[in-house]
Specification:
alpha+beta; Phosphatidylethanolamine-binding Protein; 3 helices; about 15% helix; globular
């Protein structure tokens, strides 16, 4: 009986560890007011519908699309922008994590041609004419997936902007990117995926 209770207790402790690493996100995002989606409003409030084949809106981002395993781009698509759209920009931010008073910047891509409304899963190089922009590691960096720490899940905002212009090739910082986009957003939209710490090797995902 004692041995059974001990085993039951150990299972309960192990289960609590997994659950505590995968709690729902916090009630509010500390960096929400600094998200690009908030600070780059679309003219007239026009919206884009954004989705990913890898996860449902508000759903878990597969570990293969995170830095824990593979860092494979999950894929992204959106509805076409309004007349006058000349390019699209994508900005991925984690507003549940703050660095230098800003949401962590995982990835940006600019000058996506107006004829393109889909980035394939597993994409390595930008489409012709487009460029990777700055992220937390510096300028011109490719997709950098979540690396969520233990604790509550984090919300990752994949934000898409339809612009009435193309942007300069040299955008060394996020501030430079935002300055170049300001006043040029015709429509915008986002899809949010949840990231979490990867389970120990060999355990169930």
């Amino acid at each position: 009986m004692t041995r059974t209770l001990l085993i039951t207790s150990l299972i309960a402790i192990g289960g609590a560890t997994v659950v505590s690493a995968q709690e729902p996100p916090a009630g509010s995002e500390l960096g929400a007011p600094e998200l690009a989606f908030v600070n780059l409003p679309a003219k007239g409030g026009a919206k884009l519908t954004v989705s990913s084949p890898a996860f449902k809106p508000g759903g878990d981002i597969p570990f293969e699309n995170t830095q824990y395993r593979g860092n494979v781009f999950p894929g992204l698509s959106w509805t076409a922008g309004p007349p006058g759209t000349k390019s699209y920009a994508v900005i991925m931010q984690d507003a549940d994590a703050i660095r230098s008073d800003m949401p962590i910047l995982h990835w940006t891509m600019v000058n996506i041609p107006s004829t393109i409304t889909k980035l394939d899963a597993g994409m390595v190089d930008p489409p012709a004419g487009a460029q990777d922009g700055p992220n937390i590691r510096g300028p011109n960096h490719p997709y950098l997936g979540p690396h969520t720490p233990a604790g509550p899940k984090h919300r990752y905002h994949f934000q898409v902007f339809a612009l009435d212009t193309t942007l300069p090739d040299a955008l060394p910082t996020y501030d430079a990117l935002v300055a170049a986009m300001k006043g040029h957003v015709l429509a915008s939209g986002q899809v949010i995926g949840l990231g979490q710490v990867a389970p120990p090797a060999g355990s169930e995902e």
